Amino acid sequence: MKTKSVWTRKDLLGLEPLTREELELLLATAESFKEVIGRTVKKVPALRGKTIVNLFYEPSTRTRVSFEIAAKRLSADVINIATESSSVRKGETLIDTGRNIEALKVDLIVVRHNCSGAAAMLARHLRASVINAGDGWHEHPTQALLDMFTLKEKLGRLEGIRVSIVGDIAHSRVARSNIWGLTKMGAHVTVCAPPLLVPPGIERMGVHVTSSIEEALDGADAINVLRMQFERDTGEAFPKQLEYFKTYGITVERLKKAKENLLVMHPGPINRGIEMASDVADGVNSVILEQVTNGIAVRMAVLFLVAQANEPEKKSEKKNGTKR
Amino acid sequence: MKILIRQGRVVDPANGIDEVRDVLVDNGVVADSGRQITKDADTVIDAAGKIVIPGIIDMHVHLREPGREDKETVATGTRAALAGGVTTVLAMPNTDPAMDGVENVRRLSDIVGKTAVARVLVSGAMTLGRAGREPVAAKDLKRAGVVALTDDGSSVDDPEVMKAVLQAAKEAKLLVICHCEDRGISGRGVVNLGYMSTRLGLQGIPRQAEVKRVERDIELAGMTGCPIHIAHVSCRESVDLIWRAKEKGMRITAETAPHYFSLTEEALASDHAPHTENEKEIEFDRAEFGVVGLETELAVAITELIEKHVLGWPQVVERLCVGPARVLGYGRGHLKAGAPADIAVVDPAAAWEVTKNGFVSKSRNSAFLGRTLKGRVTHTILDGEVVFARQ
Amino acid sequence: MKEKAKILDSEAVGRTLKRIAHEIIEHNKGTKDLVIVGVRTRGAYLAERLAGLIGEIGGTTPPVGILDITLYRDDLSSIAQQPVVHKTEIDFDIEDKRVILVDDVLYTGRTVRAALDEIIDFGRPQFIQLAVLVDRGHRELPIRADYVGKNIPTSTKETVEVRLAESEGVDEVVVLEKA
After folding, report:
1. Are C88 and A313 in contact (CB < 8 Å)?
2. 3-class secondary-structure state, position A1
3. How far apart (Å, rounded) are the C-alpha atoms in residues B279 and C112?
4. Are residues A187 and A145 in the same domain?
5. What angle is formed at CA B128 by the lines to CA B122 and CA B133, rounded to 5 degrees?
6. What is the mean pLDDT of residues B108-131?
7. Per-residue pLDDT for A282 more than 90?
8. A308–chain C Cβ distance below 8 A for any pair
């Protein structure tokens, strides 16, 4: 692995602004970290002394815990702020909250928020590093990265592979990030959703669009099944659950018409019986649990690179050159 | 006070003039204009290489007073206007309290009389409290000095109420300015529905929200015979509807704002919408709509239309001065001898960067922050007096 | 940077490594429980070579591990010198083994300190001995090598560069000076 590129961004806000080289660097670094999490002592001192805050305005267990484990394996200290019990309830603005956290001399903030663009806005106003753990419908970069890592690990490459993303594309940040990341790496992406849930102009993001699950499965190397949200209320028409399963659910029957070693992915948590059948979720094609494990390696890589890039240049290094 | 403006390119499309001339201002009016004026003057403005135009008439400005003086006041708003070469503004009525009754209108007129440094025309709301239910007493408002009625900020949803408003406005001989937005369609949208809303993951507003309401208002105007003016037109379909109505002989006029240029309107108005930093520098979904525009509209017109050869100076002046004057039935917007001397002298080549600190307006929420624009007003003359001169 | 002097040529490097291999076997009275762990990148190549030489001389080739110490450095380096994280590959059990840690150049000692921490995170060895091709002085930590190929006193304005066939196509050790 001779990656020559260097990571210079103090934040990770999304995959859209990244170059192919940066994506490759992220994935390569994640590979090294995957080895670390396979050890008995799963800890390295790389971020010792750094403090990372999980600032989650939306409820989440898995992403937050994943980031927490990743941070702790890098020997960083982690603080979790759940906004139900905080000053945000008292009407504090996002920027004020961010600045207050920064004033506590925190190095990194992992933020999840229900407004698109929230992470970017925070990053603009803070010197601390900001990592987007999901902003509205906009992006969820670490999820897409772990999806891509899983695909690369299983299929050996990302260039030229065929990936289909199925579900509520219009409201999915996981879909958007995956589209940016995969297309930049040369994969062919198809999105499949009921017509009302296909956002306008999405073809311009470089994807093929279909409303037929059969078409999405045909010839695909992997299918990424999105969670069908039923707790949102935007006043738009949503298909009923059983109807959705009938038309778009991933079942063993449907998989028979797909490639034998099709990879079945899901960001979790799964609605069994709605977006996929139980026996598919637990079946041989499913790599869902591996995604979760890879999530730790990927998040360790992201935290590490971002923290490095935000480190002020030390005077001693300028004097002596390479230290041995 | 005699002012001689020397050798500027005078663009006065209302009188068919576009050539280098001297303009003499005396006693508050345009006294003379010609190739060479040799008379003496108290003040001489060297306008060589510059453009001399009638003072701009901006028919869509939110002065925010009374009610939100933290965003802007009549004083700061009119000062900002002068810095942008705007000598007359039509103030929007969605203040707090709204301009829905004689007392409120008188209160604003009072403030204008005491603090305005540019000319302010007052518009009235369409319904009481802007609630969309009870039409205002149009004739009373007209007597109190209102020149137009508008629902700007939010359209009147009930077509029966809108019809009643148009009826009353027609009888009172008041212009009606329509803010065309069907909130049933726009809902909680925050940006135009399309590729951008998809890419950014934001709730989009379908074009239909504007188009459907334009359609409705044109229909109601036809039924009542009341002339209407459509504010801030932003899409092609609306423009087509308006054109078709005009071809049928209906009295429909329209304006657009610099932040969404399209080319077939009579008027360019800024929709100057000051907002405090708190209301803008927050999550996109929660931010208030609108941008300030008084100080940049001319420069944007120069940079985007004139420099790019989309329109020439006479056509731009038509839209900034002549068109609005005509729509409002307002006797300015031109430089004929004897006309009140509202004049702006513009350096068309001056390049300047739009910065937060460069604003005269109280608010700085500009769509053009960080951009370099071309064209800057050097002098503004109101009623024959130099009221603004750039240092 | 310009080349100031060539300290070891290809033949000399070969002879030096052979001598170190002999010393390791002699000092440890055989090859029992020996494992060779090299620090990326050149330390790893040298570790492979030493393991091979020890196998030739002593009869058994000890297992070789590769260490990437990026995650154990005592500083998050600035962007200008950002090293890329590569994999650490230790496929055997460290517990109770006799570890020979191998690197190309010993200078401040910070790399070795990081390597020691990382090895110990893998388990508790019997001991760790350090073998380096070059010792150029200027230690910043109390670290010393058990086996040294060549001592090269240098100034801080100089750099010692080890070139190997596996990476640069030729075996040699040169001293470079900042121009």
Report:
1. no
2. coil
3. 55
4. yes
5. 130
6. 94
7. yes
8. yes
Is the confidence at residue B336, as pLDDT, over 70? yes
Is the CB of A205 inside 8 Å of chain B's CB atoms?
yes
Contact (CB<8Å) A121/B194: no
Is the domain of B239 the same as that of B294? yes
Q: How far apart (Å, rounded) are the C-alpha atoms in residues B263 and B286?
A: 31
How sure is the predictor about B386, in pLDDT bands with cuts at 50, 70 and 90? Answer: very high
Verify that B70 and B111 share a domain, yes or no.
yes
Query: Do A150 and A164 fall within a single domain?
Result: yes
Is pLDDT at A296 greater than 50 in this prediction?
yes
A287 and A156 share one domain = yes
B271 is known as an active-site residue: yes
Q: Which residues of B touch A139 (CB under 8 A)?
A: 201
pLDDT bin (cut points 50, 70, 90) of residue A317 is: very low
Q: Which pTM was predicted? A: 0.80
Both A187 and A233 in one domain: the answer is yes
Say yes or no: A36 contacts chain C, CB-CB below 8 A. Answer: yes
- Mean per-residue pLDDT, A73-91: 78
Same domain, A191 and A263: yes
CATH of the domain at A245: 3.40.50.1370
Residue in A121, A176, A201 closest to B201 by CB: A176
Is C122 an interface residue toward A (CB < 8 Å)?
A: yes
pLDDT band at B193 (very low <50, low <70, confident <90, very high): confident
Q: Quick one: A308 and A263 in the same domain?
A: no
In this structure, the strands spanning B385-389 and B372-382 are antiparallel
Residues A247 and A274 grouped into a single domain: yes
Contact C37, C121 (CB under 8 A): no
ipTM of the complex: 0.81
On whether the CB atoms of residues B293 and B63 are closer than 8 A, the answer is no
**Domain boundaries, position A214:** 141-291
DSSP code for A148: H
Tokens encoding B259: 């932040």
Do A240 and A195 lie in one domain? The reply is: yes
> Which of B306, B328, B350 is a domain's end point?
B328
Q: Is residue A2 part of a domain?
A: no
- Map B313-326 to HEC letters: HHHHHHHHHHHHHH
A173 interfaces chain B, CB cutoff of 8 Å:
yes
Q: What is the mean pLDDT of residues A38-45?
A: 86
Are residues B295 and B375 both part of a single domain? no
As a three-state string, the secondary structure of B36-85 is CCCCCCCEEEECCCCEEEECEEEEEECCCCCCCCCCCCHHHHHHHHHHCC
**Set of chain A residues whose Cβ sits within 8 Å of the Cβ of C81:** 317, 322
Q: Is A276 exposed, middle or buried (0-12, 13-18, 19+ CB in 10 A)?
A: buried
Q: Tokens representing A176?
A: 């958007």
> How would residue A89 be classed by pLDDT, with cut points 50, 70 and 90?
low
Using an 8 Å Cβ cutoff, are A138 and A180 in contact? Answer: no
Average pLDDT over residues A78-85: 80
What domain range includes position B375? 2-52+334-389
**Chain A residues within 8 A of C88 when measuring between CB atoms:** 32, 35-36
